[in-house]
Structure formats: structure tokens, C-alpha cells
Amino acid sequence: MATVPVHALTRSQAARRERVVRTAMELAAEGGYEAVQMRDVAARAHVALGTIYRYFSSKDHLLAEGLVSWSGDLQEKLERNPPTKETTAGRLEEVLRTATGNLEKAASLGVAMVTAITGSDPSVTECQQAVSEVMVSILSMALMTVEPELRQDIIDVMLHVWYSSLLGWVNGWRNVSSVGDELVKAAHLLCRGVD
Questions:
Q1: Per-residue pLDDT reduced to its tens digit, 46-96
Q2: Torsion-angle region of residue 179: left (phi > 0), alpha (psi -120 to 50) or beta?
Q3: CB–CB of 163/104 below 8 Å?
Q4: Which residue intervals of 88-175 are DSSP H helices?
Q5: C-alpha–C-alpha distance, residues 105 and 77, integer Å
């Protein structure tokens, strides 16, 4: 069954959909990926189970939408408080520490969202694209003074390092604080000689 596109929702449907996403994120924050069961989300959000499936084709789709929302909140936070360090590497480090700091504060939620968005469920493809666009935008905040071609190269490599580090974290190969450390190390290596 195809889900209803967000742009086709009425105001009340959009609010209901948002409530379902928030509820899933609450459950994930409390107990991780396994704690998010569609029936539990429906009960806590006070919606019918069928309503959830009108908006989300799977648990991974629902949690991936949570990551889209979380990423958007991070972008707004960084736009309100942009990086201020003098060097490009310093500004990039500020952005990365803010992002990974948010993950550290809600580790169970972070693992659940990353698990969902890195899965093979085709329904998360649009979410993957949306999160990638936000990550490009927030990295660009720190790299505004860098020549466009080099900026794009740095962003491309940073996204690969970020993805790899997050996979290592959700699979238990490393802890969340090492994700931030790896990103900062990559940022300083990539920005060597930029300023």
C-alpha cells in the first residue's frame, strides 16, 4: 500500500503524522530500535494502527522520518548559533561537535534512527536524500570561505567519514564519542592549508 505524500495532507493530518513521528522518537529514546513497535506507537499517539500505515510503510520509514526531523532541528540550531571559530577547521569542528553532542545526549534514539535509515527498506530513500541535503547544508556553514570545488570535495569526504563512523557506532565497533573524534580528525586533515 502506498503512503500518502506529505504535500497532500490536510493540516490536521500533518499534525497527526508529526505526533506519530514524535511518539516513535520517544519510544526509541526510551528503549532503542526494538522498543519501537507500530502497535505501541499507535496506542501512545492515540491513532489507529491503519492510520500509521497511511503515512509510513514500515518502522524503518517512521524512524527515518524521525531522523529527517532531528536533522532539521540541528540545522535550525546551527543557523541560530553559527560556528564562530577563526579557522575553517575550527568552524567545521564546532559544527561536528554540535551534531555528535546531540547524538550522545540521546544515544538510544540515535542508534534507532541511524539503524533505520541505513537499512535496505526502499521507503527510506527519500529520507536518506533529505538527511544528506541537511548534512551538506550544515557542513557548508563552516566552509563558506572555501573555494566551491574544494568545499564540495571536503563535504563529500566528510559525509563518507560520518556515515562510516555512524555505522561503526550502531554496530558496536566504537562508542558515540569516538564518532565525534574521528570526524574532527578528518576535518583537520582535510582543512590543512585551507586558511
A1: 999 999 999 999 999 999 999 999 999 999 999 999 999 999 999 999 999
A2: alpha
A3: no
A4: 88-105, 107-117, 125-142, 148-170
A5: 15
